[in-house]
Amino acid sequence: MITAMNKEIIPDNWYNVVPDLPEPLAPPRDSKSDISSINLLNKILPKEVLKQEFTFKRYEKIPDEVMEAYEQIGRPTPLIRAKNLEKKLGYSGKIYYKYEGATATGSHKINTAIPQAYYAMKEGVKGVTTETGAGQWGSATALAASLYGLPSQIFMVKISFEQKPLRKTVMNLYNGNVVASPSTLTAYGRKILKEHPDTPGTLGIGISEAVEYALDNDYRYMVASVMNVSLTHQSVIGQETKKQLELIGEHADVLIGCVGGGSNFGGFTFPFIPDGDDTEIIATTANEVPKFSKGDYKYDLMDSAGILPQVRMYSLGADFVPPTIYAGGLRYHGASPSLSLLINKGRIKSDEVTEEEVKEALRTFANTQGIIAAPESGHAIASAIKYVKAHINEKKTIVVNVSGHGYLDLSIFGEKK
Amino acid sequence: MITAMNKEIIPDNWYNVVPDLPEPLAPPRDSKSDISSINLLNKILPKEVLKQEFTFKRYEKIPDEVMEAYEQIGRPTPLIRAKNLEKKLGYSGKIYYKYEGATATGSHKINTAIPQAYYAMKEGVKGVTTETGAGQWGSATALAASLYGLPSQIFMVKISFEQKPLRKTVMNLYNGNVVASPSTLTAYGRKILKEHPDTPGTLGIGISEAVEYALDNDYRYMVASVMNVSLTHQSVIGQETKKQLELIGEHADVLIGCVGGGSNFGGFTFPFIPDGDDTEIIATTANEVPKFSKGDYKYDLMDSAGILPQVRMYSLGADFVPPTIYAGGLRYHGASPSLSLLINKGRIKSDEVTEEEVKEALRTFANTQGIIAAPESGHAIASAIKYVKAHINEKKTIVVNVSGHGYLDLSIFGEKK
Fold first, then answer.
1. Residue A108: which of A97, A100, A99, A116 has the closest Cα?
2. Is the peptide bond before B76 cis (omega within 30 degrees of 0)?
3. Per the database record, which ranges form the Tryptophan synthase beta chain-like PALP domain (chains A, B) (predicted)?
């Protein structure tokens, strides 16, 4: 049982945008001819997660145990009016921010890690496994597994494992087992290590290792983003935001979020889709990863290794490598199929911001609102500031999703450009 | 105007324990014979802060602008039932934690920094200044000053300045000017640098520099802890906790907090004092800083340099140097006079925990509740776990103050003891 006050704000159901899309979603395709990557999903995902990935149902009841875990990790997260920022910008409209950095793991990732680990536990598996880059997803996976008494095996891209030792510390504090990938724990990892002993690792290698580890050890694979089920779980963000706005008598004229794979963005904005077109929705990417303006809308690999199925999405190509690494969570080459479709149909607009705009926005947000936001979330803030400056005389209500805090990314302010 | 929902929980007034103490508080004394340190306070503190330091009034109205700033930086902070921790400990009672780590600067320090900077701004001064050790207080000062458009000059103990560059980054993001102390900005700093060029610096040197800087530049000095006014401002913590408990129909049987100078502890527990004796209150220190068990209750210097007045308190001696530095905020040699009196009269009990117990408690709290608590707050959690184990069959409601998060202290888990 959660408290009455929280029950008023945390939704009872997850919202799935699929039935409300302007046209049916293109189905996933096998990535390789010799092995069915769609059949593979049957083996590596908990049954309930697989069901939710392909469902056409608009609502899915959140199990009581998951509801309670959401409350334990800090939900509902706050929706705060950024009065100091408004003043600094000389804006006569309103700016609100939803702060997912207030969750226990410091980002939105925990919202889908919890139900995935819960369903894995219910199905009696031995543990959960996944890959992680910068470590946000690995942290969420480790904590979620710990909450349900499951071990977790996390394959962390080797270069990040070496450069971000504190993320490893966090995962260890959450009872996670973390190895640098490629590792000696899998045949695939050992093969790569033999052929390329000095490789920095990639997310593709990490996914391959996690999938092999899941198959060999009766573990289940945890899905970070891109796939529909993760966006559905993240819908707690947008549903809470709607309820919080309703309680203070506000209506969102503009929603702005950042896009890596699309899970914080979809979770934040999709619950507003069935309400009609009077809320403007803006998806912001890094200037260096211009998936919506320069990517193609096509079938492409979800992961560079081609383990997971192909999906139809905006993509810069699965082998795309952006130039800088200051916002690790936004480096992904594509975007969730449902988000891609809504962009393609013009319901959601896109924006791009530069590293310089992001750093300036992070500084401004810190010295006005006090929040040290994650570099990824800094893109949403920078985009909101751009919007305000371009519409300074309009009195709109803008809501920005600040998807995580940046306490473990402070080093970006120490470097010279 | 703050929102109705928050107005229900954030108190309208600060609570001052002085009129409710079992006997009058011993007055402060000058520390040196040649200069009146009490007169000095008149010159370096905002008038309103000085008035609140020596008031006998039970309640002081929180100005609307401060109320609004409290909301902006994340008040009310959450009170969460630690169900996963209860389960892990096999406790049939209840454990709640109040989470001050959820404020924008990540600790309770901002609760008094805001009103002090506000009063300084109202009085038209040029800026604010203070000393900081690990950097938590400096961060709170910098943000509070930024919120009211004031510059801040922060003297950071040189060894910490060098060892904790990320804290400096945070202060800079909050518009704070930070220098290593001793610095060349003051005559006192230049003198020390000439005599001891390799000194690691001390809080005493930092205080001396900040006081000189305030006097020479029409700045005001910001008081971190120990002095009564800071505990009064921190009473928002305990008053919110009482209200939040009331809203869910709970009564606190036991309150546990950690003690450095006493501000988070006093702020959390003192609002329960006028309600009578049926709430047990426990003040926990580090085993290495046994001020209540091995200190004397006597007049002693507040700061090693003897700049500020002497007060009657439990003290290990102003030149006490604890052996380890893993919890910088608990290294202080004394404790606030009002807290010391309540300990001396037996109304508040004390406890001590070891570094090993603290690290274990931090791990347990992380992998059950997901919160990476500050090492200082880890002492309160460790003490609560000890209490539960010693009273495993009682069904009490225990409330712990988790005064800050530990994202910038993760390195303590990397070191070998």
1. A100
2. yes
3. 72-404
In the predicted model, what is the mean pLDDT of residues A127-132?
A: 97
Q: Nearest-CA neighbor of B136 among B225, B14, B41?
A: B225
Token readout for A329 is 């969570």
Using the Cβ of B366 and the Cβ atoms of chain A, whether some distance falls under 8 Å is answered with yes
Does any domain span residue B8? Answer: no
Strand partners, A59: A15
| φ, ψ (nearest 5 deg) of residue A300 | -150, 165
Nearest CA-CA distance, residue A29 and chain B, Å: 37
What is the CB neighbour count within 10 angstroms for residue A160?
24
Distance between CA A175 and CA A268 in Å, rounded?
A: 29
Q: For A132-140, what is the mean pLDDT?
A: 93
Q: How many domains does chain A have?
A: 2
Give chain B positions within 8 Å (CB) of A104.
369-371
The CA distances from residue B47 to A45, B66, B67, B124, in Å, are: 64, 17, 20, 11
Give, for A38, the enclosing helix (H) or strand (E). helix A37-44
Query: In which band, very low, low, confident or very high, does the pLDDT at B415 lie, cut at 50, 70 and 90?
Result: very low
Helical spans, DSSP H, in B218-336:
228-247, 263-269, 291-294
Last residue of some domain: B176, B201, B221?
B221
Can you read off the two tokens belonging to residue A333?
């080459």
For the cut 50, the answer to whether the pLDDT of residue A166 exceeds it is: yes
Q: What is the separation of C-alpha B398 from the centre of its chain, rounded to a whole number of angstroms?
A: 21
Instruction: Write down which residue in B187, B221, B255 finishes a domain.
Output: B221
Task: Name which of B100, B407, B408, B412 to mutate to probe chain A: the one with the most chain A Cβ atoms within 10 A of its Cβ.
Answer: B407
ipTM of the complex: 0.94
User: Is the same domain home to A35 and A132?
Assistant: yes
Q: What is the CATH number of the domain that holds A313?
A: 3.40.50.1100
- Domain interval for residue B22: 14-63+109-221
Residue A113 sits in the same domain as residue A99 = no
- Is residue A166 packed enough to be buried (19+ CB in 10 Å), middle (13-18) or exposed (0-12)? middle
pLDDT band of A416, cuts 50, 70, 90: very low
List of chain A residues whose C-beta atoms are within 8 Å of the C-beta of residue B363: 173
Indicate whether B187 and B313 sit together in one domain: no
Assess whether A310 and A199 both reside in one domain: no
